[in-house]
Amino acid sequence: MAQLLDGLKGAFKVSELRTKLLFTLSMIFIFRVGAHIPVPGVDVDAFRELIGTAGIILGFFDVISGGAFKSFSVFAMSIIPYINASIIMQLLTVVIPHLERLAKEGEEGRKKITQYTRYFTVMLAFLQAIGMSVMMGNYGVLHNPGFISYAVIVFTLTAGTTLLMWIGEQITERGIGNGISLLIFAGIVSRLPSGIQNLYLQLEAGTINVLSLLILVVIGALVIAAVVAVQEGQRRIPVQYAKRVVGRRVYGGQTTHLPLKVNQAGVIPVIFASSLLMFPEQIARWFQGSAIAEFYVNYFGWNSPAHTLVYALLIIGFTYFYTAVIMNPVDMADNIKKYGGFIPGIRPGRPTAEYISRVMSRITLAGAVFLALIAILPNFVLLATRIPNIYFGGTALLIVVGVALDTMKQIESQLLMRSYQGFIK
């Protein structure tokens, strides 16, 4: 803790870094203020009761949005449409040749892809806002149901998501850390006080006992330790570079390594799988009362064994798919060969690419299984502790710890460049 405080003190001594930190905090403050501005025409109290009876799916969505969904504020949809749009655009980059060419054009190409992502985000937010307004009407939580009320809800929610997208991009460009990740981080952390208060009230009421609370604390500590270990874990493949003589200078000859992270995909597969499974669940709730909707909710609902199994398999599949999108063994092997490098015992070229692909497949399996276990952790925590409505589960911890580590590393690098002592000694 002393090292952390010394690092923060050193960060505020650097004017440029202090400006970035204050700008980041001001943007997060705007996000938290907007999370408490309700959308006009919605009965917020009735909507909160609806969330309390809807199960863990809406409760988890409320945690991600930092309570904005439960109060049905202008930021109720959070930044989820932007995340989905970014993931889909990354996947389309592999499929559509035009986007693939743009991705290889450098900074200008990335700017165009970013612009396409923004347009796609607005479109997804508009469609999701329409669905949420229809759900509001079906559940009878609107004061004056009608075209005007639906239009106000749709455009307010779409504008809120668009503003969050802009805030996230501004934090990334002018602040510290990844803006989108920090917004999700701030939303999750903001729910901690109410979560602790809820546990305290349950403990006072006798709903839970001290033993259950201790088990929850131990599980949380173990999960945090496991997340840190997997996030920082990597397989280092040794790479030897041959000596080259250019004029009178000798280049190369050193040994380095190629780091392959165990969890290369991060939390993206979990978010993508959650969004994919959340879509049919929402549709079923819009048509509540029909036989098909009741069958789906009863047998494939959020807490059912079938849903848990499909959820885990989708996470494993998306982890492999997304890792293959962002990591190309052929390009890595070509780059090693281009600069006169080779992996000891492996021939350059195609054998190197096949070797890297085999190693990536093995470590990706470990990372994928870990993500799947973390995602379905709340189900097992509920069985072990008997504490209801545990929304702050493994996925939330994975996001919080991952974002905290990345942001700390960025501050650390800024401090080290200016000869300041950082967080890590």
TrEMBL record:
Coiled-coil positions are none
Do the record's keywords include Signal? Answer: no
Pfam families named in the record? SecY
What InterPro entries does this protein map onto? Answer: SecY, SecY/SEC61-alpha, SecY_CS, SecY_dom_sf
Give its localization. Answer: Cell membrane; Membrane
Q: Which UniProt keywords apply?
A: Cell membrane, Membrane, Protein transport, Translocation, Transmembrane, Transmembrane helix, Transport
Its placement in the membrane is given as: Multi-pass membrane protein
- Biological process according to GO: intracellular protein transmembrane transport; protein targeting; protein transport by the Sec complex
This protein's GO CC annotations: plasma membrane
Q: What is its main location?
A: membrane
Give the transmembrane region(s). Answer: 21-39, 119-141, 147-167, 179-196, 208-230, 308-330, 363-384, 390-408
Which HAMAP family has this protein been placed in?
SecY
- Description of how the protein assembles with itself and partners: Component of the Sec protein translocase complex. Heterotrimer consisting of SecY, SecE and SecG subunits. The heterotrimers can form oligomers, although 1 heterotrimer is thought to be able to translocate proteins. Interacts with the ribosome. Interacts with SecDF, and other proteins may be involved. Interacts with SecA.
Similarity comment text for this entry: Belongs to the SecY/SEC61-alpha family.
Question: In UniProt terms, what function does this protein have?
Answer: The central subunit of the protein translocation channel SecYEG. Consists of two halves formed by TMs 1-5 and 6-10. These two domains form a lateral gate at the front which open onto the bilayer between TMs 2 and 7, and are clamped together by SecE at the back. The channel is closed by both a pore ring composed of hydrophobic SecY resides and a short helix (helix 2A) on the extracellular side of the membrane which forms a plug. The plug probably moves laterally to allow the channel to open. The ring and the pore may move independently.
Please identify the protein, giving its name as recorded: Protein translocase subunit SecY
**What phylogenetic lineage does the species belong to?**
Bacteria, Bacillati, Bacillota, Clostridia, Eubacteriales
